[in-house]
Amino acid sequence: MEVEIATIGGYEAVGRQMTAVRAGDDVVIFDMGLNLSKVLIHDNVETERMHSLDLIDMGAIPDDRVMSDLEGDVKAIVPTHGHLDHIGAISKLAHRYDAPIVASPFTIELVKQQIKSEEKFGVQNDLVKMSAGETMSIGERNELEFVNVTHSIIDAINPVLHTPEGAVVYGLDKRMDHTPVIGDPIDMKRFREIGREGEGVLCYIEDCTNAGKKGRTPSESVARRHLKDVMTSIEDYDGGIVATTFSSHIARVKSLVEFADDIGRQPVLLGRSMEKYSGTAERLDFVDFPEDLGMYGHRKSVDRTFKRIMNEGKENFFPIVTGHQGEPRAMLTRMGRGETPYELDDGDKVLFSARVIPEPTNEGQRYQSEKLLGMQGARIYDDIHVSGHLRSEGHYEMLDALQPKNVIPAHQSLEGFAPYVDLAEDMGYKAGRDLHITRNGNMIQLTE
Ligand SMILES: [Zn+2]
Prior knowledge:
Bound molecules: zinc ion
Main location: cytoplasm
Binding site for substrate: 385-389
Protein name: Ribonuclease J
EC number: 3.1.-.-
Family: Belongs to the metallo-beta-lactamase superfamily. RNA-metabolizing metallo-beta-lactamase-like family. Archaeal RNase J subfamily.
Number of strands: 19
Radius of gyration: 22 Å
Distance between the termini: 7 Å
CATH superfamily of the largest domain: Ribonuclease Z/Hydroxyacylglutathione hydrolase-like
Strand order of the largest sheet: 7-8-9-10-11-18
Shape: globular
Largest sheet: 6 strands, mixed
């Protein structure tokens, strides 16, 4: 059977991931993501109303025109997890394919919400829920399997397409967490089995985000302990304490909520995306928040809550807000600019349970946000965080478990691929032979 891979998006930078695998007559698409920085760099761009081709020209969504060179029918569109760089283009591209969107329950729910907010296209693909450990047939000879992985968002999976020529394992995005705060540990046992059963692994496509970092990415339970240490150390402070993190990082939000209670403060979630992700996770029973946990997204209800906090005393509350990257319209940025009823005083604490995404726009905005908060007297606690992506020893372990015949580095720039290429070559792969360094819009033929 002919197996080929189309590397459509995310092979030149992090963002707008999209890869298609053709096995015989069947095609499966993995991820359909957005490159948010290409959108945010323009003022006032409302992607909801924009046409796909304009967004492709901006570099915001994958240029899927290469799909017309791929013979065969698309049988499934499979987003791996709910981050926007993996699902953000579904509302713009999925309607062009007569195929269901197959994803884990939390991811499907986020896809559903995104489709609902789309104003230009009516996306009507079937939405199919499939959990880690489950499989489905793709055509007559191929099978799709979801393997549980751990990442900075819940319910992440790595899809595997089993073909008669061997398995194609799509490894975006993950870290190796054996003690996650929510959900099951990464299923390394299954990866090792896949590496040894049948024809083994024909191809492994890998998330190279942190390939240049040595050692191992710590578990979420390490970030949780770090957070507990910081929050316990300021337990006796009698002024304002505010925290921010990735809204989609439900495990982190859960830790913040629990420790707020431990230090005698009432947690409250503020900001549109805080309400969206945490509300969704709670509705789907991924997390059990206290019954009286307030979640407010709309500007008016947020400002009303801030007023209540000022009236009842800042020392009684623990607002968890949007704005960890200094996004101009996010809650913490507005607080820094003095645009909310919440008044910061000298010595008030601001906790960033996040790392700045290393990208000039984020770095600039975050710098500005921190300076504005600092000018109002806030003390900053930064970097209370662990990454969601494998470092070098995780990459070593994955190659060792899967023993793939071919490897394709993804989710990075050419420069970002370099440390991964070094590691893979140390393990016996050779660039140009079985280690395929590629760009967006290419085809890699694996078997004939
Ligand atoms: Zn991700």
